[in-house]
Amino acid sequence: MRRLKLKLNNCYGIKKLEYIFNFSETGNTFAIYAPNGVMKTSFAKTFNDVSNGATSSDMMFSKRETTRELKNEDDKDISEKEVFVIEPYNQDFRSEKISTLLVNKALKENYDRTYLNIEAEKDKLLIELKSLSGLRDKIEEEISYAFTSEPDRFFDSLVRIEKEILDETEPLYSDILYKAVYNEKTLAFLRTKDFQKKIEQYIRKYDELIEGSKYFKRGVFNHNNASIIAKSLMDNGFFKANHSLFLNTKSEKNEIHTQEELEKVIEDEKEAILNNKELLAAFEELDNKLKANKELREFRDYLLLNQKILPELNNLESFRQKLWLSYLKTRKEFYFNLLGVYSRGKDELNKIIKRAKTETTHWINVIRIFNERFSVPFKLEMVNQEDVILKKDVPSIDFVFSDSKEEVRVDKSKLLNVLSSGEKRALYILNIIFEVEARKEEKQETLFIVDDVADSFDYKNKYAIIEYLMDISESEIFKQIILTHNFDFFRTISSRFVRREQCLITDKTDEGLELREAPYLRSPFKHMKKHLEKEIMLIAAMPFARNIVEYTKGTEDVDYLKLTSMLHIKEDTANICKKDLLKVYENVLSYKPETITDESKKIVEIIFENADRCCKSAECMDLENKIVLSIAIRLKAECFIINRICPAEEIHKNQTRQLIEQYKKKYSDNKEEQHNVKTLELVNLMTPENIHINSFMYEPILDMSEIHLKKLYNDLNGMMESSVK
Predict the structure, then answer these.
(1) CA Rg, the chain, in Å?
(2) Long-range own/partner contacts, residues 171-175 (CB < 8 A, 24 or more apart)
(3) What separation, in Å, do the N-terminal and C-terminal C-alpha atoms of the chain show?
(4) What pLDDT does residue 158 have?
(5) CB atoms < 10 A from the CB of 339, how many?
(6) pLDDT at 132
(7) Helix residue ranges per DSSP H, 453-577
(8) What's the 3-state SS for 642-708?
């Protein structure tokens, strides 16, 4: 992107804004200064819509037609992926691109091939297990938890149970649905003390009956085993081959010649046990407990059809394992296919992990940038580089909090409880760095809209952010538009890396907004001195000139006193003319115009004329306008007070403040004067720094909206008119 053609109408309060941002190799960053409430947030929000593929609108005037055109040098629309908005602060933001920084491309591709082979076989097994267990999802977690008591060790679990899958025992419970037992409401009931007591009574009686059975033996051969053996003999043609078997009792041997005979013996023995009166009574007590609600009644119905699982319900963790073993035994082919691919791929994955651990990654570089540049009471360390590859975890970091004596590792939530707002913002910047570096690695051309990201930081961290923004500006694939309402920050980035002609300020007109090249980036006083032929510059330079005299000659110097009489109402104020001010400038600034017009014109008159002109003009960011308005406001306020209270003696220090205090004291109990008192308090609040401005600290007045000064000046005019009446 070499050019951005911008056309906005009715976008979140921006009535109209058109501008062409021409980027170049030496100037791929623009900076825009705009006071609060003018356009900064609306501008960022509009670009955020672009990055999210959303439409823009005017929130207050929703019926107004919105235009949003963002086109490049080829007159094509800027795409979503080409725009990224860096907000002032977003605690929840986390870059989705972090994992792309973890390993180099070759390692990642090698890993992906190996991992995808494993995933393909795993998916085949999971499909089979879904139908057997009745679960739709989280099968991996359930198996992992069953055999390791942890939710994220699926493959460890499969390796651990290989011997059980290989043994010759039959799967007893492959026909039982896992979800019928292991669901939230059923488990809550099965784990109650009352149920556990009832099930123990049932199992005790069941074990007694098995122990007294002719053919069954507790823990070795029960009716479930017998039924499975009968089925296996039938499936393998045992009786068709004219074989027979013996069932031994304590006193005799019973020879079985047919499948029907075996099934009848097993069924008769099972019925004798399950229809035992005492066992039935124990089951009845369980049955009564299972009628409490719909979910438990469904489980009761399932138990009636599958009473063989009753003896297992006193040890739910053991039964959980038996269920999964039964399922896997019936799907051995899928299980061993996955285990084989995993075993072969694991060695390759381990090699990748080992190499990934040893190489310096972009991810580590991000942490290094943060640790070296930002001043916070903690350091960052990467902790799970290999897990990100093997287990597809999101990369994470450890926070090492320290003071002068020791260090301690803390989790992020605990850390956030002790950090200042500025330190929390630093963590947000960390995620921004991840996003930027990931886009750099992907070679993704990006326009970054940076919305006052350094606001509320201390100076050291503010300069760390400026340094990183400068890093961004040095990339050929990145462009930036940096927005700020802080002129000090604006001036700093202009001196570091943003070209002067690409530093813009915002003017507000009746039609909308206009962007123009910013003045005052180096020294506003030099700019004013070059244009003293203009009355507004002549007046605006007065505080600077007085400041120079104060530093060089002191406050008793005649020129200092003369300038003070122009900035405050003194005995000689009304008689000071333009030629008197020019004489001071000749002494102080070595300024002498070639021709002088209106030299007898009174300074107070010039001040008020220019203040009136400022009030009628469109709002702009010109420093001279704000200084002249501030001077005029102070003079109007002092005139008003002096005419009302007639102070007995001249005030030599903090004149405006002293006069306002005297006025408040005199009229503190007069309700009709309270509006005037509040207006005068605003004079004291808004103008002192503006009158005593100097060439080193002029930013505060630029950050102040001209609207407030205009309103205050007009309010004072109204007060004076009412006072005369």
Answers:
(1) 42
(2) 171/325, 171/326, 171/327, 171/329, 171/330, 172/224, 172/225, 172/228, 172/308, 172/322, 172/326, 173/309, 173/312, 173/322, 173/323, 173/326, 174/132, 174/326, 174/327, 174/329, 174/330, 175/306
(3) 64
(4) 94
(5) 17
(6) 94
(7) 459-473, 487-496, 524-530, 535-540, 542-552, 558-567
(8) HHHHCCCCCCCCCHHHHHHHHHHHHHCCCHHHHHHHHHHHHHHHHCHHHHCCCCCCCHHHHHCCHHH
pLDDT of residue 390: 47
Both tokens of residue 208?
């007694």
DSSP state string for 255-298: EE-SHHHHHHHHHHHHHHHHT-HHHHHHHHHHHHHTTSSHHHHH
Question: Of 469, 491, 490, 489, nearest to 480 (Cα)?
Answer: 469
Q: pLDDT at position 502, please?
A: 95
- At CB < 8 A and 24+ separation, what contacts does 247-255 make? 247/214, 247/215, 248/215, 249/214, 249/215, 250/214
Continuous H helices in 306-420: 316-330, 332-358, 362-373, 385-390, 412-418
Residue with tokens 């939710």: 151
What is d(CA 1, CA 71) in angstroms, rounded to the nearest whole number? 9
H or E stretch at 254: strand 253-256
Which residue has 């099968």 as its token pair? Answer: 139
Which segments within 509-648 are labelled E, that is strand? Answer: 513-517
Q: Which two tokens stand for residue 562?
A: 């003369």
**Residues of the chain scoring pLDDT < 70:** 98-105, 107-108, 206-207, 209-231, 249-251, 266, 269-276, 278-280, 282-293, 356-361, 383-396, 619, 621, 648-649, 688-700, 703, 724-725
Torsion on CA atoms 636, 637, 643, 649, rounded to nearest 10: -120
Indicate whether this model's pTM tops 0.70: no
Angle at 550 between CA 547 and CA 556, to 5 degrees: 140
Pairing verdict, β 503-508 and 513-517? antiparallel
**Cα distance between residue 698 and residue 398, in whole Å:** 43
Query: Which of these, 180, 433, 155, 409, lies nearest to 316 by C-alpha position?
Result: 180
- The one-letter code for the residue type at 346 is K
Q: How far is CA 219 from CA 104, 216, 321, in A?
A: 56, 9, 17
Q: How far is Cα 344 from Cα 349, in angstroms, rounded to an integer?
A: 9
Residue spans of beta strands (DSSP E) within 377-468: 378-382, 397-402, 407-410, 446-451
Helices of type H across 57-212: 105-133, 139-148, 154-160, 162-166, 178-181, 184-190, 193-211
Cα four-point dihedral sign 264, 265, 266, 272: positive
